[in-house]
Amino acid sequence: xxxxxxxxxxLMLALYLSGVRLAPHPDDPTRLRHRPAHLPxxxxxxxxxxxxxxLRLLREGDGAEKTAGEGA
Length: 72
Description:
11% strand; two-stranded antiparallel ribbon; globular; mainly alpha; 3 helices
C-alpha cells in the first residue's frame, strides 16, 4: 500500500509523462489549472485527491533549491 506521499509522487510522474502542465489559477489560489483541459479519469481523480499538496508545491517548490545551496 502506498503512502499519500508515494501516491502523490506517482501521480506527478504520470502527469509529467502524459505531458500535463500544471499551474495555480491566477485569480483564485484555491484552484488548479491544467493543460490539456480534459484529462483521463484516473489523472483527474488524482488531482482532486492531491490538489492542496500540488498547489503547495507550485507555490513553495519542493525545497530542493534551499537545501542544494546549504553548506556551499
